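This part of the workshop introduces the protein records we will be handling. As an example, a complete record with its sequence and its structure tokens follows.
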Amino acid sequence: MLSRSILSRQFRQTASATASLVSRPASSSLSSTPAFQSFFRATVAQRRLLSDTTRQAITKAVASAPVVLFMKGTPETPQCGFSRASIQILGLQGVDPEKFAAFNVLEDSELREGIKEFSDWPTIPQLYVDKEFIGGCDIIVSMHQSGELAKLLEEKKVLAVEEGEGKKE
């Protein structure tokens, strides 16, 4: 809790100092301002919050299956609309359950915050395909609508093979 309150205080100080930059002339160097330097230090401090243990656990989770979704809730009981939409899209696409893993970020606050830093993406859910970060719900929806997601999942061979569709010789 102490580290969160320190970061919150730094964030408030940085935000108020950054607001004063609006009135600065365009010729002043932003990187030499105390507000920028404070913001940079706070950003670096936040990056350090992801422990090596958490980073290793997330790396292992991402590698646990060809398709990995970090979500709020479980595929059976999603706890937010964005997670629900992501699961529904993956189902519509026909992702093979044997090639899919989901991680409930609500069970572990360190995972919930760590995955955001790991991917440098601020929201959950987060989709990984073949260890590559794809994006959040907005990206998944967009790729689904454009056909890019179907193409990607087919290329990565993560779709379920329907009965009667054996390998063509």
Notes: The domain at 53-155 is CATH 3.40.30.10 (Glutaredoxin). The longest strand covers residues 67-71.
